[in-house]
Amino acid sequence: MILAEYLVSMAFAVFTAAAFIVAGIVLIRNADMEINNTFGYRTPRSTKNQETWRFANIYSGKIFIIGGAIGLAMIIAAALIMKSMGVKKLIWLVGVILELVIVFTVIPINMVSTEKQLIKRFDDKEENNDKG
After folding, report:
1. What dihedral do alpha carbons 23, 119, 50, 43 form, nearest 10°?
2. Quick check: helix, strand or coil at residue 48?
3. In this structure, is the dihedral angle defined by the CA atoms of residues 54, 33, 40 and 36, taken in order, positive or negative?
4. What value does the CA radius of gyration of the chain take, rounded to a whole number of Å?
5. Exposed, middle or buried by CB within 10 Å (0-12, 13-18, 19+), for 101?
6. Of 127, 107, 128, which is closest to residue 41 (Cα–Cα)?
């Protein structure tokens, strides 16, 4: 029973990490689509124009891919460590914790980082256009 709980827990964690990687790839591949209300990195700053939209989706997609890959590496490392230590009690908890760590770190890091890059890259352009 413990092995089944562990496998299910780790499978959900792997699925979460893989979902971030897939989401990142989809964002990058569809970065040239028109600004819309259903799909993409949608914030007031990213939807100002097509240039900010494209940049935000590509940048955000890269962060999702990196975050998902790091999460996947953490899951594999945790599984190998736990196997070598012979841990059997509450083994399912590791997968749940890793899943939560991935979700609650990658999304906020993505949002903060993407918004900072949008400000850095595009707010300077607007200020220069206003002066000229």
Report:
1. 50
2. coil
3. positive
4. 19
5. middle
6. 107
pTM attached to this predicted model: 0.85
Question: How many angstroms separate the CA atoms of 43 and 46, rounded?
Answer: 5
Q: Which residue has the tokens 């850095």?
A: 120
For 129, the token pair is 């256009």
Provide the residue-wise pLDDT of the chain in tens; the chain has 132 residues. 566 777 787 888 889 999 999 999 999 999 999 999 999 999 999 999 999 999 999 999 999 999 999 999 988 888 788 777 777 666 667 778 888 888 999 999 999 999 999 999 998 666 555 544
Collect all residues with Cβ–Cβ distance below 8 Å to 87 and sequence separation of at least 6: none
Q: Which amino acid is at 92?
A: W
Is-contact 17 102, C-beta < 8 A? yes
Q: Which of 15, 28, 24, 40 is nearest to 102 (CA)?
A: 15
Token pair of 94, please?
């590791």
Taking Cα atoms as reference points, which of 101, 103, 100 lies closest to residue 111?
Answer: 103
